[in-house]
Amino acid sequence: xxxxxxxxxxxxxxxxxxxxxxxxxxxxxxxxxxxxxxxxxxxxxxxxxxxxxxxxxxxxxxxxxxxxxxxxxxxxxxxxxxxxxxxxxxxxxxxxxxxxxxxxxxxxxxxxxxxxxxxxxxxxxxxxxxxxxxxxxxxxxxxxxxxxxxxxxxxxxxxxxxxxxxxxxxxxxxxxxxxxxxxxxxxxxxxxxxxxxxxxxxxxxxxxxxxxxxxxxxxxxxxxxxxxxxxxxxxxxxxx
Length: 240
Hints:
Layout: H1 2-27, H2 34-58, H3 63-84, H4 88-116, H5 126-145, H6 154-178, H7 187-206, H8 213-233
């Protein structure tokens, strides 16, 4: 039953995503496109609903799953802000909403690790800190060698990206620890890393770090929605 739910959700979501990307190519340079807004928010709603249905299918309404769902809702709000406010102020507000969602994800991951593996202290979780170190180095190298047009947004954007890196690192740690219990848990680290990839590529588009804007925007959109969907579906396997 769980596998059927995963397959049906993935097929429906990927179908909508394919339609979205095809439509996005035709309307990429149009601002205030209401049809595109509706399609993107529909996709955002999909991963929120996927998380809710994952909780309902298992019956595990724990602190972990509730924090995850709240985080997903905060990201939904961030999507809405970024799609409706096309300005630096809107970008900062959108990042703030996403940062809030990241905090809830981080609390959820940390709570789950502490509950399931109390013998592993926060500062002794090697998987988390090795993963974060690798991501930190890669992102910092990108920032150093790719000069962008940041418009005084460098500090908040860099801080947000590092926060996303740490969240992804905790997701990798939790997912890999839980995989021996359920193979479906692999969806969590994959989804979190795709989410981070979407943040990085979106930043490259926003701050003009690469000339091929549409290609990077496509990667950002696809990795974001697929990543969030995988994170939501991982709730089927991971519960505390």
